[in-house]
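Sanity check

After download, print the first record. It should look like this:
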Amino acid sequence: MLGMLGVGSLGYLISEAKVRLYFDEMLVWVILGGLLVFLGDLTSDWVRKRLREGDGLPRNRSVAPYRRSVK
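Expected structure tokens:
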């Protein structure tokens, strides 16, 4: 998921910091990745809650196909 958000280089940055033995920098990248995941979860929960309550966001529609009545 993070790769879709343009954070594909985060793993690379962590690996490079580890190879260079910059453990403080590596820790910063790991914490940043965790924060991104946490913020994504909070946003997802907020959107799902709003969808369930019907606060102006589009509601789920039936997946059944539309049927015309034949006369």
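If your output differs, re-run the checksum step. Summary of this record's structure: Helices lie at 9-19, 23-53.
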